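Quick one, probably user error.
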């Protein structure tokens, strides 16, 4: 009998990598060249895109994915999600200005590690599918970034690991409320397909190819299962089973 895995493993891994990376950064100071961070980040970008493609291919109906992305993107713009996140980041940065170096490191690292679509996507995957591929990539990225941040901004970066643990832990617990949806693969497959598109978008940014406001697409994660429900109730169920691929 297969053992059930508990949610939260990805968040624990993420917390550990931030701690380890910060300790390394505090130990080596500015000895590591900044080009190394760019190289690693670009490499993770390509890996992220490949994972995004594999997630997209789980979808059964490409029209659901396209509609969810289009409507979700428009809704994200109307709601001002990107502007809202930028405002929060600016307010936190303003608070850090004139404060101690500790506050600067803590707030800067917290913004980077907790504010972004990969955080939500990773916590959703952890809670619903009990998989941590996305949070594993995020963990490695955060760990490497924390080396450079801690080297320049000090011990505040290390303490951001506490916020990562609490914030992502709560997010995973809240996402767990949607766990019954995992018993219906038609819902989970379309969420994965939409998440895959967003992961490709994130990967393009990490690889330095094209920056895109992926956070604007976050509503699509909720629109996709809503579309599946509508189709299952009012349209023939076979309509959901069209493969998400283009001949």
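Nope, works fine. Designed sequence:
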């Amino acid at each position: 009998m297969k053992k059930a895995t508990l949610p939260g493993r990805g968040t624990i891994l993420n917390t550990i990598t931030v701690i380890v990376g910060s300790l390394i950064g505090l130990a080596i100071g500015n000895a590591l060249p900044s080009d190394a961070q760019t190289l690693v980040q670009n490499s993770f970008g390509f890996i992220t895109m490949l994972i995004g493609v594999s997630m997209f291919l789980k979808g059964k109906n490409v029209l659901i994915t396209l509609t969810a992305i289009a409507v979700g993107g428009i809704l994200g713009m109307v709601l001002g999600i990107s502007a809202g996140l930028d405002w929060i980041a600016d307010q936190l940065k303003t608070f850090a200005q004139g404060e101690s170096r500790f506050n600067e490191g803590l707030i800067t690292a917290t913004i980077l590690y907790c504010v972004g679509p990969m955080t939500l996507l990773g916590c959703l995957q952890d809670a619903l599918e009990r998989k941590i591929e996305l949070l594993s990539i995020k963990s490695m990225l955060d760990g490497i970034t924390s080396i450079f941040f801690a080297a320049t901004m000090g011990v505040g970066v290390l303490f951001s690991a506490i916020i990562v643990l609490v914030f992502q832990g709560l997010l995973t617990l809240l996402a767990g409320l949607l766990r019954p949806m995992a018993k219906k693969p038609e819902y989970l497959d379309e969420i994965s397909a939409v998440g895959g598109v967003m992961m490709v978008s994130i990967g393009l940014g990490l690889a330095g190819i094209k920056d895109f406001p992926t956070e604007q697409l976050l509503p699509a994660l909720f629109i996709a299962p809503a579309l599946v429900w509508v189709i299952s109730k009012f349209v023939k169920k076979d309509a959901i089973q069209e493969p998400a691929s283009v001949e």
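The chain has ten helices and no strands.
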